[in-house]
Amino acid sequence: MNQCFKSYTIIIFCLGLVLPMQAQVKPFAPEIFKDKDVFGLTVSPDGKEIFFVKSWGGRDSLAIFHAKKTTDNQWTEPVKASFSNQRNEFKDIDPIFSPDGRTLLFNSTRPKPQNPDNKDFDIWMVKQKPDKTWSNAIHLGEIVNSDSSDFYASVANNGNLYFSSSRAGKFGKIDIYKSEFKNGTYQIPVNLGQTINDGNVRSNPFIAPDESYLIFYGFDEGSFGDSDLYISFNEEGMWTKPVNLGSLVNSTIGEFCPSVSADGKYLYFSRLKKGGAKLEQSPFFLPFKHLKIKQLKKKNQ
After folding, report:
1. The domain 28-298: what is its CATH number?
2. Does the pTM of the predicted model rise above 0.85?
C-alpha cells in the first residue's frame, strides 16, 4: 500500500512538471512602484533600463522617470529623466524605446519650436549618446505633429511611426495614424482606415518591430472594463479587424499603454483604477506567448 502511494505521488509530481502553469499577469517591479502613481512603462532592449510616467494630483503633474538595474539585479531608486520636466512647467508622458534602444520617443506639452503658445501634446524624442546618457529633447516637426494632440508614438525597425491623434479628419474621437520614414524624413501621416479606426476611441498604438501586428487600447461595446487592449494583424499590407486580447489581460478596470519587449517575450501594459479624486495606476507584465497569437489570428478568419 505504501509503495503504491509512493508511485502515485511520483506520477503526480512528474505530471506537475509538464502541465502548463496557469498564466497570470503580474505587477512589474512592485518594490519600486508602491504608491500606484505610475504608468507608461517601457523597457530597454537589454532589460537594464526603464522609463515610465509618474503622476501627481491625479494627472495635474506628469513627468518621465527612469531607473536602472544594478549588478545584483535590483532596480535603482527612480529619478526624473534628464530631458523631462524639471520644474513642472509642462507635462511629459508616454516614453517608448525604439527597437534598437537608441531612441526614446515621448510626448510633451512643452513649448513647440514653431508654435510655442500651443499647449497640446506633441511627439518628441531623445537620442542615446556614446556615453549612454540622453540628448536634449528633439521635436519631430510639423509634418508629423499637428495643431491637435499627437501622442503615444512607437516606431518599427524601418523607422515607420505609429501614433494617436485627435487631429481633423479622424473617424472617431481619437484615431491611429502612420507616418512612413523615407530617405531620412517622415512623410505626411496617414489614417490607418476604418477597419482600425471604426469610430470608437483608438489610442496608445504599439507597433511590432516588423509591423506584423499592432496593439492598442479602445473603448468598445461589450469590453471587459473601462478600456481594453486589442490586437490587429498586418495581412499583406492590410490591417485585420481588431481582436480583444481577452480576460487574461483585460479586466474590469482600464488597460492602456501597451508595449512588447525587444525580444518579443513580454507584454507590458498599465492598469488604471478610478476612485473619486484618486487614480491608481501601475505597470504589469505577462509572457507574450500566453496571448496565443495563432488563436487570435483565427478569430479573423
Report:
1. 2.120.10.30
2. yes
